[in-house]
């Protein structure tokens, strides 16, 4: 009995002591040098008992033993252990860990430390973006990411921008990446009424951006499934932080000019060339050009060309001095409950092309509020108004750049010096449109994204997001009675487009650490998007006065139309991430996508991906290395899709029409119910490294992307009654290497110098095309060749004996080789593949230097391997085939037997080498000083008296220097009349160069 009582007493005492030991509760806050740390991990050592800090860095952990040790950890910071004996409240500041990669990246429906990343993601911070004074965010990214090519089509302020991530993965479908801002997929459709595109993202203010992540491989992009083939660009805007309210002001102003001007003949050279050409064609005795009242007199419009009384530089009239103003402010701050960020911006860009300008007003408001320890809500909003003064497309005489075709003998104005001369010019004088017409575009864009996040358990959260994107664009064009519309007494049209996108995301996130060594995270949810578009168009002629420029003043309505369309996506997705012992990494994801755009039998697609990584530097044999602090190998494979086609491409369509003034219905599209997703399989293997305490770090990657079931507008025989049918045919492959190297070259108390270098290669090949070659203009799609390769006759120079243009025959010999003999008969020469519009090697290098209060940075960008065909070359360098003014290469023309030159004899109105050939095809290899910035921050001892935190003066430049052998305006400027899905690529046609801009600015932080 006594033994039983004793045993019971011992059990009771043991339970009591155990209860007392584990009854302690510890609370507090975890911070770093910048403030509270949300999401830091607190774990009781030797147990699975752990919690995460909330958005304010606070935590409470229960059932902690009186002698327990807590482990505090956060990505990029040193893990600390702390005994809690006798402690119930503590505030801990975690220190930076130089052995860690501290960067945390947005990865789509979540975040992840770069150290544990198994994907290939390029990250660009706000510091790299805000220092570059450009009107659109894409141009701020040029040269910053390996494997990413960004090109503005030409120098127009609103001009379209092409971003190609790891090559070209489609023929007829979209080649643009998916843009996502704060979780909301953006509308990225060109809504221009003309053939020249407008950049759909021109309304976004780059100064509002905190960071941009570019998802390049399938493992990162597959979470966006059907639209991940061309890569995903995740844009995160700036958020407020609790603490002192901060006010930041930035104001800058600068001037611009064309990066390059071409050399054209002056009056004396022009008259000499054409007089000689006339003599070669009609004999020296025929003076029809030079005789009184002849062509030269007509062009001179009363001016004496014989004494150079007029020598008009039409290029200087078209390319003018531009200017730029950019003014922004932001207010941010908050407390433990609520943080906010508010900004406003104004940009005024006067383009380098006469009559082209842009004015943008923008507002952003981001708000996050902590309702309780479990519930948090937020709202991000953005409003912008953009006004654009447009000019004609490259292929219209009303566009300024085509003025270079005018004769220098023709005065630009009449004798009053005000009225444009359109009486004696060869072509329509573009000044007529500037003085007697208008073309304006107004874009009003609204972005809204709200969220609600509820913490169900310490490890489990639910988040719902509701996003809305509205893009309203109105375009009004007027051509007065003194313009090319004189015959109709004026012409005007108006176009209004409204695009809406609704996005709903609901997903759960479960994250937990087990036994210190096992980290797991699961994300699962659904997404729904609906996009709609409506358009109204009307045109009229006959205006009583040029002062009345809207359609309501037209005497006759000559055209009108309206349309509505809609499509949607329904998706389910999941992702699992595992980390074992902080060195073995696994990730898998899957997305099940449905789209209304595809046939009923293939409406849904499955897009899986998996990746793995091994942090070798965490192994015992490297862990204590004094040289290598990071060595990680990773690999991934996944499937992504492309849905960038028409909304009803799988359906048989009819449209209403009129037949003999009776209503009718006509078939306009064949049905294809088997139309399915274009899918890309991508493999990536990479190495991440950091040595010498991360003073040298980088990445090496090799990837292979193979796109199958290409969405192609396949041509059909004319006898079928249809021109084309959208089908899944063919495949193509992109593969290449990427290399990134970041170095801290010098780091002292007063002097720091860092360099970031990226290199990438691209090998693009068409691997299958069941229907055979597809030829469009000067380009071809052929198996075994780069997509849209140039397919033209090969130019062989000039016959020294007679000045004839020569071409290589390139006909097949019996042994399969090509006949390289020459002929002056163009019809005897065969077309051959002569180059590619896409670079095979790209690089970018950024240097950042700071010395005391000075900062200095610059970026070089380079591309090699691509070519450009000058479609205007037959007019501009045509040996007097047309009356257009000529480039100065004509001074090297053939004139006498024995002359060795590449410019044939000048022959008036006669064809001699102006046919499509490699004569007008050039390599566009270049290196460009993309941007440069020099700043000085005033000493704090000077500004503290003014209650100012920081004052910085800076000077920046964009496109300051370009090194190239390309003879055209610019190696990146191309014809803006080509649609993105068009096979024709790499064509220039009076395409304006980009602007070289120098800006002086001031940053003030209060």
From TrEMBL:
Keywords: Cell outer membrane, Membrane, Receptor, Signal, TonB box, Transmembrane, Transmembrane beta strand, Transport. The lineage of its organism: Bacteria, Pseudomonadati, Bacteroidota, Flavobacteriia, Flavobacteriales. The keyword Transport applies. Residues 114-232 form the TonB-dependent receptor plug domain. Residues 1-23 form the signal peptide. Residues 420-960 form the TonB-dependent receptor-like beta-barrel domain. The keyword Amino-acid biosynthesis does not apply. One of its GO terms (cellular component) is cell outer membrane. Pfam families: CarbopepD_reg_2, Plug, TonB_dep_Rec_b-barrel. PROSITE patterns: TONB_DEPENDENT_REC_3 (PS52016). Gene3D superfamilies: Carboxypeptidase-like, regulatory domain, TonB-dependent receptor, beta-barrel domain, TonB-dependent receptor, plug domain. It is found in: Cell outer membrane. InterPro entries: Beta-barrel_TonB, Beta-barrel_TonB_sf, CarboxyPept-like_regulatory, Plug_dom, Plug_dom_sf, TonB-dep_OMP_SusC/RagA, TonB-dep_OMP_SusC/RagA_CS, TonB-dep_rcpt-like. It is a multi-pass membrane protein. Belongs to the TonB-dependent receptor family. This is TonB-dependent receptor.
